[in-house]
Amino acid sequence: MWGMGLTDEQARAFDEAGAVTIDTPLTARQIAAAAAAMDRLLPFREGNPRPSRTCDYDDPALLDIIQHPFFEAAARRALAADEVHFFQTAILNAYPEPGVPFRFWQHVDIQYRLSDFLARPRRILCSFFLWLSDVNERRAPMMVRPGSHLLLARLREDDPAWDAGGGGPPAVAPVMLADLPPLPFAPPVPLTARAGQVSVLTTATVHGASTNVDTQPRRNLVFTFAAAGVTIGLPPGEERQKREYHALLRARLRPERAHIVPDE
């Protein structure tokens, strides 16, 4: 089962909904070690209930997960690719916010056209949102509008006015929901999960964070893959950071897993 990463049904859900939450082969020990690393790297500080970091850590417990063969296999299936490469990573802890009402905000991160999604291999990113703590409807669940990635991809294919890439390669270019075209998006639904499960997502789907009105923190390790040879645009600062982080990872990953980081 783990060799393919995604079953046929899960791959279909990724295609149609843009997000699917699945089990992983990670052990309880691996999850506990990664959660402890998250708390070391993102301690609670008054006034900052949602600390995060991007591409600047090499804790062995987190790298152990990023380089796990399961995620490479799942990314190959989601991207319809024979070979995939690690792209970026981020970590985020959402601590409880007593007295704050539940609310959420939504956006898209990557913009691509329908032809990018239908290409083989796909010219999109596959994002893994690995939950290192249980996520219920009160503990800062991610809110997702299923199928919204396809509505936006079709519009960008058909209407150049909405093609932020101007005919160029797909790009990470965040847009808030209020600034998106008024398409018939599905209502938002919360992604709930058990610790150790992962949501496989295309962040071209309208999605976003919510407040933690529970009593325990929510821990989330995010990492992304792209098909080998596919160009995904980044803002210059992020591109520079990504390349520096890739150089760090090539020296830190196990020799038999270092191939997931492209030699740039």
Structural class: alpha+beta
Look up the CATH topology. Answer: Jelly Rolls
Overall helicity: 25-40%
Low-confidence stretches: none
Named at the architecture level, the CATH assignment is: Sandwich
CATH class: Mainly Beta
Strand content: 15-25%
Mind telling me the CATH superfamily name?
Answer: q2cbj1_9rhob like domain
Number of domains: 1
C-alpha Rg, in Å? 18 Å
Order of helices and strands: HEHEHHEEHEEHEEEEEH
What oligomeric state is this? single chain
Organism: uncultured Armatimonadetes bacterium
Protein name: Phytanoyl-CoA dioxygenase
InterPro entries: Phytyl_CoA_dOase-like
Pfam family, one: PhyH
Describe it.
With 264 residues, the chain is of the alpha+beta class. It has a single domain, classed as Jelly Rolls (Sandwich), CATH 2.60.120.620. It has seven helices and eleven strands. Strands 1-9-5-11-3-2 form a six-stranded antiparallel sheet. A three-stranded antiparallel sheet has the order 8-6-10, with no helix packed on it. Helix 2 (28-41) packs across helix 3 (60-66). It is globular, with a radius of gyration of 18 Å. The mean pLDDT is 96.
